[in-house]
Description:
Blueprint: E1 2-6, H1 10-17, E2 24-26, H2 29-35, H3 39-49, E3 54-57, H4 63-74, E4 80-85, H5 88-99, E5 104-109, H6 112-120, E6 125-128, H7 130-135, H8 140-154, E7 159-162, H9 168-177, E8 181-184, H10 186-193, H11 196-212
Parallel strand pairs: 1-2, 1-8, 2-3, 3-4, 4-5, 5-6, 6-7, 7-8
Helix pairs in contact: 1-3, 4-5, 6-8, 8-9
The structure holds SN-glycerol-3-phosphate.
Amino acid sequence: MKIFLDTADVKQIEVLLETGMIDGVTTNPSLIAKSGGDIKETIAAICDIVDGPVSAEVTATDVKGMLAEADVLSAIGPQVTIKVPLTKEGLIVCKQLSARDIMVNVTLCFSAGQALLAAKAGATFISPFVGRLDDLGADGMNLIADICTIYDHYDFATEVLVASARHPQHVVDAALIGADVITLPPSIIDQLYKHPLTDKGLAAFLEDWKQTGQSIL
Ligand code: G3P
């Protein structure tokens, strides 16, 4: 499963790239606002350090406006993946961009029906927001399972990109289902490494080793 970093903070991206675990980056207007940077400069800076897909979201809601913004954002580099909302207009734009071999990430997906339409529109990625469904008391992972089943039935090329993850268990559940990608805020990636028994076991190993008085070097 690919792991994308869900942030527009270039410094955070630089730090986590060192783990070798990052396969791409997703941003959205809220993450760009949080970064405090200019969207075009920020996406360009991310593309300079990240090899994989970099999602940049349009902010227009009409077809003409989204296409104009997509032209500006995709000109930044070939790895720029245009994010469009899952609306009728967004999927019209998705179909036109995918026909031009521009990668498209269809975002704000909350139903399997929406995901079916996105695949038919030629989306490169579909981003179902599991955390926001969980927040309402639904089970966001059920949506991921339904989408993966539908996509498998019809051999759709669209990759399921699990978004709005809230904790490491979302990563495991997404992998158990067979999602293609999960996008994670830096905090969840850090949590993913952690287990109290690992810390406890390592401390015990090192304490016992210390008693030997030995050094490997
Ligand atoms: O990629 C989408 C993600 O940024 C949304 O996450 O936590 O605002 O639901 P959240």
